[in-house]
Amino acid sequence: MNHSDLLQVAKEFGDPVYVYDANKISSQFNRLTNAFSGVPKLRLNYAVKALSNISILRLMQSMGSGLDTVSLQEVRLGLMAGFAPEDIIFTPNGVSLEEIEEASALGVQINIDNLSILEQFGSRHPKVPVCIRINPHVMAGGNTKISVGHIDSKFGISIHQIPHLLRIVELTKMNINGIHMHTGSDILDIEVFLYASEILFETAKHFPDLEFIDFGSGFKVPYKAGDIQTNIEELGEKLGKRFNDFCDEYGRDLTLAFEPGKFLVSEAGYFLAKVNVVKQTTSTVFASVDSGFNHLIRPMLYGATHEIINISNPEGKERFYSVVGYICETDTFANNKRINEISEGDILCFRNAGAYCFTMASNYNSRFRPPEVLWYNGKAILIRERETFEDLTRNQRDVKDLFQPKKQKAEAK
Ligand SMILES: Cc1ncc(COP(=O)(O)O)c(C=O)c1O
Questions:
Q1: What is the pTM of this model?
Q2: Is the CB–ligand 1 distance for residue 182 below 6 Å?
């Protein structure tokens, strides 16, 4: 998408607004598929949490993707978008047995990440095939909040608990049809994948009835030109070959599964916000936009850096700006960054806004969540409307009969 396309979307749908480029999503999907073309059975399950709009899920389905889900609600969104239950894997963490049973009743592939639920589920439903999430004890991921495969992490069943796990499987006679790991997001080094994969291969040897091995996700995408990214092609070549060798050793072709979120949708997303105020202080020039961490929390939550472009004045002289939101707390999107000269009313474009932006948005400060627009074949299609005041109040119950207004003393005279 070019700047004038984006400005056109802001004009048509107002600001702030999220825009997703369908072509970029499909080119990323094809890139990953091509990288692993040497593997006979490949399965990509899009991680719904990254961007869960039903129209995006339909786009994923049209490309042949499955879904990775972490809540019953994500499962339902997938079913609503037309996915067959067998094309959905449910990988929750810390949820109740009831939620897992409910998902299982819908027919999706269950992935269990703790021994307690594994034993309970296996005893009650020994015939339901189950995948197990292994914690390989590998330190991976761009920062501690998104590193989930290390020894202190709450995720997965420790590789040191394999003997216990095997006793549960033997006792319940349950069928383990897959093993899974996900060690973190923004993994820089493919060696980490390859190292953790070896642990998964070793673990796989304990389970004779596997159908698939799921390597999770965590591919690092670039956040600006020249930024470091996971070398998918090299990973495809190395891991693909190693996987095929493992299948020979195992005795049959298994499916190699991934569950990419960011890789598929991060770069396809643009978040557009308008500059309300340019404020010069003694040390800084702030550009305050009509948004905040209610719409894009990643900079405040993870220290993520989203490139910001002034698409209203892309040729303007570069100056230093701190781009901030309108929230009643510090909500800094960028600190003293060079941006083309900003005037009040300009539209700023935040890049990499496809993954974990809308899905992490909230109504904090009682603001509306913005609309979402899909850019498809040169056309802008509204896929979620801007919220309204009715949306904010819809589920509230007003106890107006319980409390009577009382004037403050000064006013009461
Ligand atoms: C189990 C699991 N799979 C896949 C993903 C997607 O990761 P990414 O967005 O880095 O591709 C996540 C992200 O949190 C996850 O927890």
A1: 0.95
A2: yes
